[in-house]
Amino acid sequence: MIFITFLSGLICFNSFIYCVRHDVHEMMYMKFDGAPACFRRLNGTHQFGCSSPRGGSYGVVHFIRSELNLTDFLRHAVAGPYAIILTPALFRNDVIHSLIDSGKVSGIILNTALIPDIDLIPESFSPDDVCPNRYSGLDKTCPVQWNPTANRFLLNDWPLPIFLVKNLEHYNAISDCHDKFNPPLDESQLSRPLCSLHLKSHMFAAVNSETCLRRINFYGVNAAKYCDPLGGENVVLPVLPWTESGSRNVILVGARLDTLSIFDGVAPGAMSAVTGLVTLITTSSIFHRMLSTNEIQ
């Protein structure tokens, strides 16, 4: 949930006995529904992903559109904490770590509303590991980094909320508010009202999967709200019928059906599973046609 704060006041138009009242909250805040948030995940040993404090995080709006903007912010920003708007090209681990280490940032917003501006798009991006699911294998090693552009973003436990803004109207509202109240980035920000964002994406799940499940069982709370297990389905189809007796050599050919995502409900990598899935279906169809009726029986 994102709120944008406008510095306005209470307006009451009084003409004789006629008065129209506008709530201060409605005049100062604009609520953005549907802004996807980076959420927290758990495994058997760790927590990773993103979360805000329970009451949310407040930050002065500031746009970083280039490396020069980043350097200028780290040197001159004094009115923090700030909510930083980043372009996809700057949505990198090193940039985010430098912002967090500065102690001046309370939240980050990834802006994709201006895409397809080619200058804003990174050449490659993968939030997964260079060897996805390496710790689920037998030897738990990574001899071949088959996902070389990965930045391991989702394997970090980020200590602040991170949101995605892809709606152009929402982006324009934030940009207009920033341009009206916040420049320049200097000590004058300490003595004037500023446009701010309230970012709220608190995650109750913590520590690891075992601890989280133990807590919900102990307190009797709703698991779907506090510690919702991630699950899926495997679709298995044999070319030849299964038999209860006898043995034969089996070759398993598999393809993934899902994708990994940073933000809730947003899966830009979903289409990447299509190539492998179509290849698997085509291969299965060819094998089936090659088998004679006697072989199938």
Protein model, in words:
With 297 residues, this protein is α/β, with parallel strands linked by helices. It has two domains: 2-199; 232-296, no CATH class. The protein is 26% helix and 16% strand. The strands form three sheets. The protein has a seven-stranded mixed sheet, sandwiched between helices. Strand 2 (12-15) and strand 3 form a beta hairpin.
Summarize the structure.
The chain is an alpha/beta fold and 297 residues long. It has 8 helices and 11 strands. The strands form 3 sheets. A 7-stranded mixed sheet has the order 4-1-11-7-8-9-10, sandwiched between helices.
Give the key terms:
297 residues; alpha/beta; two-stranded antiparallel ribbon; 11 strands
Instruction: Please indicate the percent range of residues in DSSP E strands (runs of 2 or more).
Output: 15-25%
Which descriptor suits the 3D outline?
A: elongated
Q: Mean of residue pLDDT? A: 82
List the secondary-structure elements in sequence, H or E: EEEHEEEEHEHEEHEHHHH
Which structural category fits the helices and strands? alpha/beta
Count of alpha/pi helices: 8
Low confidence ranges: 6-22
Largest sheet: 7 strands, mixed
Total domain modules: 2
Strand order, largest beta sheet:
4-1-11-7-8-9-10
How many whole angstroms does the radius of gyration measure?
25 Å
- Helical content class: 25-40%
Q: What's the β-strand tally?
A: 11
What is the end-to-end distance? 58 Å
